[in-house]
Every structure is written in structure tokens, then in C-alpha cells.
Amino acid sequence: DIQMTQSPSTLSASVGDRVTITCRASQSISNWLAWYQQKPGKAPELLIHKASSLESGVPSRFSGSGSGTDFTLTISSLQPDDFATYYCQQYNSYHLTFGGGTKVEIK
Amino acid sequence: EVQLVESGGGLVQPGGSLRISCAASGFTFSSYEMNWVRQAPGKGLEWVSYISSSGSRIYYTDSVKGRFTISRDNAKNSLYLQMNSLRVEDTAVYYCARTYSGSFPPDYWGQGTLVTVSS
Question: Which residues pair with B100 in a beta bridge?
Fold first, then answer.
């Protein structure tokens, strides 16, 4: 199976900060990469698919980039509602795999 | 409104069995592929199983092969996961999640159902 490595595992930031999360695949996945946001006790919510396509209703401060094996999720100006855990996921294979998650905490 | 509602979770002893369900509404269930994804307490997300829209293609993660069976009933807009020979490490919240096709990731997820395997 394709392994997804996400970093950092925890990130402390303040409202208004620019935040970047990275995700690396163990083999090329083209741009079959999604990003999810999960809040405690809730199901994950899809933010971005195909590495950089923003889902409808997702604020434009979220953006994704990358292809092949290296990807990034950027939040241009962190808002109070953005404190959550973020996961990358590859769907190049039907055997989906997720990164370990990045918890964005209040500094 | 798209809704996925899981049910059937609970406490079961190691070696026991449980069937969890996912009731779909608000979309054409028979046109969508479905997945089960689980999350152990305080841990990350782990894909468990996939079933195609017709049910003709099925995949499992290695740790559940031979113990879990995914199925669907398109007439009842329902997805199932039969879990046998349960282990303590199967303890998790189980989510069902829909996928339009292999070109898209799971977009809508249910709220999850907790399966606890403990003596």
C-alpha cells in the first residue's frame, strides 16, 4: 500500500498566521490527493481534492498544491474555526491511505 | 440533503461478531461507491473496505481480510459491514463514506458508530 507521511504532527499558531502542512507519498500518486479537516467528535470534512481543487463552500484561505509525491495544504490567514486536525489522503489506489494527521493548536 | 447514518455499534467480546449498517438518503445511492473508514480512540483515520456501486468489486485492508465482509443493498439504500472474530484492536469509530468514482475521494461521511471490543 502507498504510505502517506504528514508533517508536522502538531502545529501551534495564532489567529492570522499563515500555516503550511506537508504530505509526502511513498510513490507517485499524480494529483490524486485530498485534504480533510476533522474537529473533535465529528466526521472528517473534505476540503480539497485533486491536490488543489477547493470543495464548494470551503473558504478561499485554504489552498493545496503539489503533484507526484509532495503536497502542501496552506491556510493563508488562520481563523478561530480552523483549529482542528488535518489529514491528507491518497486515492490513486482503491486502498485509500491517510497521513497521520496534523493537529493545529492555538498558540 | 445528503445523509449517511451509521448504526449497530456497541460493546462486544473478543472473538465475537457485530454487523454495522449505514443508511443513505438525499442522493442516488446506487450510483455511488462506498467505503468504511475507522478511527481508533485518539488515533488517525484508517481505511477498512470499499465496495463498488453495483457490489461487484470489493477490497479490504489486510488486517480485516477474512474477518470482515462489506455488502450493500441498493434497493434499501443501505451499506453493511459484517465483522467476525473481532479483536481488541478493532475498537474504533466506524464511518461510512461515499465516493462518486475512483476519480474522486470520499466526499460525504456519516457521523460514525462506535465499536468497542473488550472483555
Answer: none
Using one digit for the tens of pLDDT, what is the confidence trace for B47-103?
A: 999 999 999 999 999 999 999 999 999 999 999 999 999 999 999 999 999 999 878
**How close A11 gets to chain B, by Cα (Å)?**
16
CA distance B96 to B38: 9
B21, burial (CB in 10 Å: exposed 0-12, middle 13-18, buried 19+):
middle
> Rounded to the nearest 5°, which phi and psi values hold at B98?
-95, 150
DSSP count for chain B of H helices, then E strands:
0, 11
In this structure, how many other beta carbons lie within 10 angstroms of the beta carbon of residue A28?
11
Measured CA angle at B113 (ends B107, B117), to 5 deg: 130
Length of chain A counted residue by residue:
107
pLDDT, tens digit, for every residue of A70-86? 999 999 999 999 999 99
Instruction: List the one residue out of B57, B100, B78 whose CA is nearest residue A46.
Output: B100
Residues of A in contact with B109 (CB under 8 A): 43-45
Where helices occur in chain B by DSSP H, the ranges are none
A95 contacts on B by Cβ (under 8 Å): 47, 50, 59, 61
Distance from CA of B65 to the nearest CA of A (A): 13
